[in-house]
Write a structure and sequence with these properties.
The complex is a heterodimer. By secondary structure, chain A is an alpha/beta fold. Chain A contains 19 helices and 5 strands. Classes of the chains: A alpha/beta, B alpha/beta.
Chain lengths: ~425, ~400
C-alpha cells in the first residue's frame, strides 16, 4: 500500500509541475476567453440596438447609412417606394457617372440594370470592396424595389406579393417546450462540451500510455520492477494520472461554466441554452469512468509496446470508438433522445462522450444515466482484471513488437509465449 | 553542395516512400469524399418528401403545379394535393400519407391568414414552396404582362463585380467563392504536415544520437538546409498530388454535376498564394527545425510546436468574421501579424479587393520574419544540436556568441 502511494505521489507531482502541463492547463481556457473578448471589442455591433452580442460577428458592421446608386437602362424603376430610407438609392444617367461617384466616395456601389432585364433578369452590382458575402445582404432591397415597380407601384399588391400568406401553425400533437434550434449556439455549446470531453479523456488516458511506454523505453522499468510489484505500479499510476486529469477537467469545465455565466449576458445566450449546473457533477462521474476505461486500455498497450513511437501508432486504433460520437454529433445534438444516441450512450466505450453531449443539448432520463454508469463500471472491472494480468514483469520487460491480435489474445488471458505461438 | 543534395534526397525518400505517407496522402481526398457522403445521407434522411395537402375554401389555387424544375437531394420538390374537406385530410395525416395540410379559409383575401395542421412540424422547404405556389397563383390572376410575371416569378440574377471589373461572381454561383478558401486550407495542411516531419526528423536523430555521427561529416548549415529543402519538397509533392486529385475530381464530377465546372482559380490568386505561402513555408519549417533542435524529447517538441501551429489556425476559427467583415480592425491586425497573416491574407483577398500596398506590406513582413526565422533556427540548431538532457532557452539563443 505504501509503495502504491509513493508511485501515486511521484506520478502526480511529476506531471503537474511540468511547465507544459501548467501552460495547457491555463492557456486552454484563457485563449477562448481572449478570443471572445477580442470579438466583443473589435468585431462587435456598435449600433447598440440590443440585437448585438455574439450574433453580431455574423453581420457586417454598419454604423453609417449605406448609399448606393443605380443605372436603369431597362427603364424598370419608375419610383423608389416610400418604405426605402431617403437617399438610400441615387439614380445615375450613365455608367461613367456612377463609376465616378464610387471613386469619389459618394456611393459605395451601384446597380446596372441591363436593357434586356425583363428577358434575362441580368443586373450587374458593382461594389468598391467586391465582397460577395456582404453583397448577399444588400441586394434583396434592390430586388424588392424592382419587384415593387414591376407590380405597378401598388404598395398593397407588393405586400401581398412579398408575403402572400401568414401561416398559423397548429400542432395537433403538441409536445413540451423545445429548445430554440435556430440559434447557432444551440449547436455550438453541446459541441464544445463534446470536444472538451474528448480532449480530456484522451489526453489523460494517453498520459498513462506515455508514462508506461517511456519508462519501458529508457529502462527505468527494469529498476522499478526490482522494488515494486507490477500491480502496485499499475494502481499507483492509474490513480495518480487520474487525479491529474480530474484537476484538468475541474479547471476547464469550471472555467467554461463561469465563462458562459459571465458571458451569458454580453453574448446574449438565451437562458434555455445555458448549461445546467448538474452537468458538472455528471461530468465528474463520467470523466472518472471514461478515464478509467481508456487509461486501463492504454496501460495495457503501454505494457506491450517496445517504445513510444509504436505506442502512438497503437493508440489510433484504440481511440476509434471515442471518435464515433464526434462523427455523429449532429444527430446527437439535434435529436438527443433518438434511438442512435440512446444506444451510443449505453455502450460503455462511447457512453461518456455521448452522454455529456446529450446533457448539454437537453435532458437525459435518469435510468439511462444509471444504466450507463453500471455498464461502464462492469466493463472497467473486467478490463482492470485483464490488464493487471498483462502488467507482469514478463511483458513489461519485453521488446516485442506490438500487434493488435497479440493485444487481444493477452487481454483474453493467454500467456505472452502461447499468444506468440498461436 | 553534393552533401546538401544527399541530405535532401535522404529526407525526401524517407518520407515519400513510406506507407504512412501514402496514408496521409489519401486521407484528405477520403475525408472530403466521406464528408460529401455524410452530407448527402443527412440530406436524404432529414428531408421528408411525402406530399402536403391543402383545402382551398377561398378558391385561390387554380393551377396546382407550376414548378417544373428538377428537384435534387438538397432541394426536393414537395408535391401538393388538393382535398375537398378537412376530415379526409386529417385522416390522411393520421395515416401518415401526408406530412401536413394547409387550410385556406374564405376570409383569406382580406387577412392573408392561412392555417397549417401537422403532427410534427414540417421543414422550411414545405413552407417556402407552398408560399411560392400561392404567389404564382396570385400573380397569374393579376392583369400584368406575361413577361413581367415571368420576371417576378424568377427574380433577377445579380452579378457582383469589383470596381475595375477584374473580379465578378454570379449570384447563383456563390459557391465558387470557396475555391480559394479550399486551396488555402490545402496549402496550410501541407505546411503543417511537412513542418511536423521536419520536427520529427530533427528530434529523432537527436534522440537516437544519429546526429553525432552525421555531424562528423557535414556542417550544421548543410544539414539544416538539406533538411528544410527536403521536407519542403515532401510538402510540395503532397500538394501537387492533391491538386491533381482535385482536378480529376472536378473533371469527373463535372460530368454528373455541371455546377462543378464553375470552380476555377484566377492567375492573380495563384500568384498571391505562392507569394504568401513560400515565405510561410520557410518560416514554419525554420521554426520547427529550431524547436526540434532545442528540445530533447519528441513529446515535448510536439507540445511546443503548438505555439506555432495554434496561432496559424486562428483565422479559421473566426472565418465568419473575415467573410462578412473583411476590412474590420481585427482582420487587418491579423493580416499584419506574421503567424496569422498567411491564412488571413488568403481569406481576405478571396472576399474583398485588398489594396496592393497593404498586400505588399503584409508579404514584406512575412518575408522579413521568414528570414529572421532562418537565422534563429540556424543559431538554435548549432547550439542545441548536440545538447542533451537540458533544454536550450530562448535567452541563450539570443545571448551567447557561438564558439567556432
Amino acid at each position: 500500500m505504501k509503495k502504491t502511494w509513493v508511485v501515486f505521489k511521484t506520478e502526480f507531482i511529476n506531471t503537474v509541475t511540468r511547465r507544459s502541463f501548467l501552460l495547457t492547463l491555463i492557456l486552454v481556457p484563457l485563449v477562448p476567453a481572449l478570443i471572445l473578448g477580442g470579438i466583443s471589442l473589435f468585431g462587435g455591433d456598435e449600433t447598440g440596438d440590443g440585437a448585438g452580442g455574439i450574433g453580431a460577428i455574423f453581420r457586417p458592421q454598419q454604423t453609417t447609412q449605406l448609399v448606393e446608386g443605380y443605372v436603369d437602362q431597362a427603364g424598370v424603376i419608375k419610383e423608389i417606394p416610400s418604405w426605402v430610407e431617403e437617399g438610400r438609392f441615387i439614380a445615375f444617367e450613365s455608367v461613367e457617372a456612377a463609376q465616378d461617384a464610387v471613386v469619389s466616395g459618394e456611393i459605395t456601389g451601384y446597380y446596372l440594370i441591363r436593357p434586356d432585364y425583363l428577358e434575362s433578369g441580368a443586373i450587374h452590382y458593382v461594389r468598391e470592396d467586391f465582397n460577395p458575402m456582404t453583397a448577399m445582404e444588400t441586394t434583396p432591397l434592390m430586388n424588392n424595389v424592382i419587384s415593387y415597380n414591376l407590380l405597378g407601384g401598388d404598395p398593397l399588391r407588393f405586400q401581398t406579393y412579398q408575403n402572400p400568406v401568414q401561416v398559423l401553425n397548429i400542432d395537433l400533437e403538441p409536445e413540451e417546450v423545445e429548445r430554440d434550434q435556430s440559434n447557432p449556439l444551440a449547436f455550438y455549446i453541446p459541441y464544445g462540451v463534446a470536444m472538451l470531453f474528448y480532449v480530456l479523456i484522451l489526453s489523460s488516458a494517453s498520459l498513462m500510455l506515455n508514462s508506461v511506454a517511456k519508462e519501458k523505453e529508457n529502462r527505468v522499468m527494469e529498476i522499478l520492477m526490482s522494488s515494486v510489484k507490477p500491480n502496485q505500479l499499475f494502481t499507483g499510476k492509474i490513480l495518480g494520472l487520474g487525479m491529474v486529469g480530474l484537476l484538468q477537467m475541474v479547471v476547464w469545465l469550471g472555467s467554461g461554466l463561469i465563462m458562459l455565466r459571465l458571458g451569458g449576458t454580453t453574448l446574449n445566450i438565451p437562458p434555455n441554452l445555458q448549461l445546467p449546473p448538474e452537468i458538472f457533477i455528471w461530468g465528474i462521474i463520467f470523466f472518472v469512468l471514461g478515464y478509467l476505461l481508456y487509461a486501463t486500455i492504454m496501460a495495457g498497450i503501454g505494457a506491450l509496446v517496445p517504445n513510444l513511437n509504436e505506442a502512438t501508432q497503437a493508440t489510433t486504433i484504440v481511440v476509434l470508438p471515442i471518435i464515433i460520437p464526434l462523427l455523429m454529433i449532429g444527430v446527437i445534438i439535434n435529436e438527443p433522445n433518438a434511438t442512435l444516441p440512446v444506444v451510443l450512450s449505453l455502450i460503455p466505450f462511447t457512453a461518456p462522450n455521448t452522454i455529456m453531449t446529450r446533457l448539454a443539448a437537453g435532458s437525459v432520463p435518469i435510468w439511462q444515466l444509471l444504466v450507463a454508469i453500471i455498464l461502464m463500471i462492469l466493463t472497467i472491472f473486467l478490463l482492470i482484471r485483464a490488464v493487471s494480468g498483462m502488467f507482469r514483469a514478463q511483458n513489461l520487460l519485453t521488446g516485442k513488437k506490438f500487434s493488435l491480435g497479440l493485444y487481444i489474445k493477452i487481454l483474453l488471458g493467454q500467456d505472452l509465449e502461447t499468444a506468440e505461438e498461436g | 553542395m553534393t552533401k546538401i543534395w544527399h541530405i535532401i534526397k535522404y529526407e525526401y525518400r524517407r518520407h515519400v516512400f513510406r506507407k504512412r505517407f501514402l496514408f496521409s496522402l489519401l486521407s484528405l481526398p477520403m475525408a472530403v469524399i466521406a464528408m460529401i457522403l455524410v452530407a448527402i445521407l443527412i440530406g436524404a434522411f432529414s428531408v421528408d418528401t411525402s406530399p402536403v395537402g391543402y383545402i382551398d375554401y377561398a378558391d385561390v389555387i387554380h393551377e396546382p403545379i407550376t414548378i417544373e424544375e428538377e428537384g435534387d437531394i438538397f432541394n426536393p420538390i414537395i408535391p401538393f394535393t388538393a382535398y375537398q374537406d378537412e376530415d379526409r385530410a386529417k385522416n390522411d395525416l393520421e395515416a401518415e400519407e401526408i406530412q401536413a395540410y394547409y387550410v385556406i379559409p374564405e376570409t383569406y383575401s382580406d387577412s392573408l391568414e392561412i392555417e397549417l395542421f401537422y403532427l410534427e412540424e414540417p421543414g422550411g422547404d414545405v413552407q417556402s414552396q407552398f408560399t411560392d405556389l400561392v404567389r404564382q397563383n396570385l400573380l397569374a390572376s393579376e392583369d400584368l404582362d406575361p413577361e413581367v410575371i415571368q420576371r417576378l416569378e424568377e427574380g433577377s440574377l445579380i452579378t457582383t463585380t469589383s470596381l475595375d471589373g477584374s473580379r465578378e461572381m454570379r449570384e447563383d454561383q456563390w459557391y465558387t467563392i470557396f475555391t480559394p478558401f479550399i486551396a488555402g486550407i490545402m496549402f496550410v495542411v501541407v505546411v503543417m504536415t511537412s513542418g511536423g516531419y521536419l520536427l520529427q526528423a530533427v528530434v529523432e536523430e537527436k534522440e537516437n544520437r544519429t546526429m553525432e555521427i552525421v555531424i562528423t561529416s557535414v556542417t550544421p548549415t548543410q544539414l539544416m538546409t538539406g533538411k528544410i529543402i527536403g521536407n519542403i519538397g515532401v510538402g510540395l509533392t503532397q500538394l501537387v498530388i492533391w491538386l491533381i486529385f482535385g482536378w480529376i475530381g472536378l473533371r469527373v464530377g463535372g460530368h454528373f454535376w455541371p455546377f462543378l465546372q464553375d470552380f476555377s482559380i484566377s492567375t492573380d490568386y495563384i500568384l498571391l498564394l505562392l507569394a504568401v505561402m513560400l515565405p510561410a513555408f520557410v518560416m514554419v519549417s525554420a521554426f520547427m527545425a529550431a524547436i526540434g533542435s532545442t528540445m530533447t524529447e519528441m513529446r515535448e517538441a510536439q507540445q511546443v510546436s503548438g505555439l506555432i501551429s495554434l496561432p496559424m489556425m486562428i483565422p479559421y476559427y473566426i472565418s465568419s468574421t473575415i467573410m462578412m467583415n473583411p476590412n474590420g480592425a481585427l482582420v487587418v491586425i491579423l493580416s499584419y501579424f506574421p503567424l496569422t497573416s498567411p491564412i488571413t491574407i488568403l481569406m481576405r483577398s478571396a472576399f474583398t479587393v485588398v489594396p496592393a500596398w497593404e498586400l505588399a506590406i503584409n508579404i514584406t513582413i512575412l518575408i522579413a520574419f521568414a528570414v529572421f526565422a532562418i537565422w534563429f533556427a540556424g543559431r538554435a540548431f548549432r547550439m542545441g544540436m548536440l545538447r542533451y538532457g537540458k533544454k536550450l532557452s530562448i535567452k541563450e539563443i539570443f545571448g551567447k556568441r557561438i564558439e567556432k
